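User: quick one, sequence for these tokens?
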């Protein structure tokens, strides 16, 4: 069996709000989280406030993307450029306004926090750290990772150096967002403008400075890598590819998936094609990020600027060239899709919608989430309105593709409940009632209804050589929710138990892990698992935690000596399967009303 991720056949949709006007530049920045997108229109006018900016929340309803809400903060003013950067993760969104004033410091910048309350996105907090100065451009870039928000500040000064850049880190303390750290490497130079982009995956952060110099190569560009050690982000490495040249502007874009990172250099040259652009692949070997591949399109064009925006997930990378030509349509834009074949990255597809027009700049930004991508074309016209902007959204209904037996719904009425119980711990943690699993009348879903000690609801079949898919919807912030593999009846009290548990390794480390439970479990096995299997960390879900009321889709495949797990279409675990056989189980500890649904298997 071979597993292939193919992005050559896509369902395309297009969205443009009805209230857009000339020069709104809708689509200048985009972000995507499951079936919800946020799109910036940073030069949109507000009443008596030209270029104030806006951001739009889009939601997939059935097969159609619809506008759910338009975001504009309560203190919006002219020329704030709100929407210049956006980020979204579950029920949290952040929007940058890099020219918002701070006290008497004009254009110092700001970032706004919005939260979804189940019905509406509500403005919760304005971020403006102490010490901002005129023209700092705080909000140049925003990012979210779990309970942390990161804000790039491209024009921040340092001592006697102007516009070196910086990144501010904020953390939610349960009530408010608090500034925790400011990153500003000591070797930054004037006009490096560090802070665009900022990309975070788990304990790894990539920060670009496209204007940084290399020896004798002005504006070559750089990327700094930071690592979270305890509560502090520490600089670990600087990336500059081996063939870097002056004015390449390496670091304009970056993305990371597991141990693979991609960085754009949008002004790099190809032979006889100046400013055609490039992107570089780096891999983490356990201690260092190593340059592995250089990507350039098969049809490079002068000034097409391949590399302005990048995205990556598993073995798929996407690189935009927003000034690429289409037939008789200069600067229409394009997106190139590459796949890793086991030894090298291969160009598989060039994405260029048929309705593109001259100067649309399709690919000015891109975001990837599961089997969906969103691409901004911020200079698209609408009739006599110029530079209104639009976004294209593509869905890959073939992700992932496997040669496998057909899956079908399973009868949950045949499954069995097994509860972990310990009188002392039940009393200590105030969980006197055992878990209760209630199967729906149609047998297609099951709900664990109690705030109880850990419990399993396990299958009447084993997992070896099978494919299983499932969904679950958490109700709160608890992360002791997931699945067990190779679980066997009696394992909660079995001194010879040996099974795998997929959940967040909570308390000290918010990381989605596949952990090994061996021997008679204790409560600590469920709240702080240390016995991790090789390659146990999820490729992309590393610090976001489960989001309340969001439905997650899982696919488990144990075939041909491989264990692979997809979450929302993204390959998160890809392991050699040396594990014993056993049952498949839904797992919950301490959270009531978690729903598991649409469970299917090829048994």
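Assistant:
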């Amino acid at each position: 069996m071979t597993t292939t991720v193919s992005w050559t056949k896509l369902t395309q949709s297009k969205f443009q709000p009805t209230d857009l006007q000339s020069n709104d530049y809708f689509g200048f920045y985009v972000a995507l989280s499951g079936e919800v997108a946020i799109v910036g229109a940073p030069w949109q006018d507000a009443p008596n406030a030209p270029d104030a900016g806006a951001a739009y929340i889009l939601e997939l309803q059935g097969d159609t993307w619809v506008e759910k809400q338009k975001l504009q903060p309560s203190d919006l003013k002219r020329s704030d450029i709100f929407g210049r950067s956006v980020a979204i993760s579950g029920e949290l969104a952040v929007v940058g306004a890099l020219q918002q004033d701070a006290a008497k410091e004009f254009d110092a910048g700001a970032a706004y926090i919005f939260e979804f309350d189940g019905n509406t996105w509500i403005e919760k907090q304005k971020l403006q750290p102490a010490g901002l100065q005129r023209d700092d451009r705080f909000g140049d870039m925003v990012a979210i990772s779990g309970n942390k928000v990161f804000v790039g500040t491209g024009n921040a000064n340092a001592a006697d150096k102007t516009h070196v850049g910086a990144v501010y880190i904020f953390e939610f303390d349960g009530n408010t967002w608090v500034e925790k750290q400011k990153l500003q490497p000591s070797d930054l130079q004037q006009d490096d403008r560090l802070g665009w982009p900022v990309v975070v995956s788990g304990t790894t952060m990539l920060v670009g400075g496209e204007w940084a110099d290399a020896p004798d190569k002005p504006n070559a560009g750089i990327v700094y890598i930071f690592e979270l050690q305890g509560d502090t982000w520490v600089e670990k490495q600087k990336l500059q590819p081996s063939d870097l040249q002056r004015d390449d502007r390496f670091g304009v874009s970056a993305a990371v998936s597991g141990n693979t990172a991609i960085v754009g250099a949008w002004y790099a040259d190809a032979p006889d094609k100046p400013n055609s652009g490039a992107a570089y692949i780096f891999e983490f070997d356990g201690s260092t990020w190593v340059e592995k591949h250089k990507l350039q399109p098969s049809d490079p064009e002068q000034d097409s600027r391949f590399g302005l925006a990048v995205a990556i997930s598993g073995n798929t990378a996407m690189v935009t060239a927003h000034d690429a030509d289409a037939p008789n349509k200069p600067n229409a834009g394009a997106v190139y899709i590459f796949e890793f074949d086991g030894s090298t990255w291969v160009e598989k597809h060039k994405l260029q919608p048929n309705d593109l027009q001259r100067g649309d700049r399709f690919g000015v930004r891109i975001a990837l989430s599961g089997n969906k991508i969103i691409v901004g074309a911020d200079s698209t016209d609408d009739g006599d309105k110029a530079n209104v902007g639009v976004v294209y959204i593509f869905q890959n209904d073939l992700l992932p593709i496997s040669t496998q037996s057909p899956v079908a719904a399973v009868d949950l009425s045949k499954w069995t409940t097994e509860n972990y119980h310990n009188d002392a711990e039940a009393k200590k943690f105030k969980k006197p009632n055992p878990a209760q699993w209630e199967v729906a009348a149609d047998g297609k879903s099951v709900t664990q209804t109690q705030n109880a000690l850990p419990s399993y609801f396990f299958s009447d079949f084993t997992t070896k050589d099978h494919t299983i898919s499932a969904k679950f919807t958490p109700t709160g912030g608890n992360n002791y929710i997931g699945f067990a593999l190779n679980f066997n009846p009696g394992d909660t009290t079995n001194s010879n138990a040996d099974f795998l548990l997929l959940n967040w390794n909570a308390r000290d480390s918010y990381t989605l892990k596949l952990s090994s439970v061996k021997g008679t479990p204790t409560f600590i096995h469920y709240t702080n698992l240390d016995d991790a299997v090789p390659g146990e960390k999820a490729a992309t879900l590393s610090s976001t935690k489960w989001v309340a009321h969001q439905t997650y889709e899982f696919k488990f495949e144990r075939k041909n000596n491989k264990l692979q797990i997809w979450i929302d279409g993204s390959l998160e675990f890809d392991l050699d399967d040396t594990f014993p056989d056993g049952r498949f189980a839904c797992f919950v500890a301490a959270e009531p009303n978690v729903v598991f649904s649409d469970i299917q298997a090829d048994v």
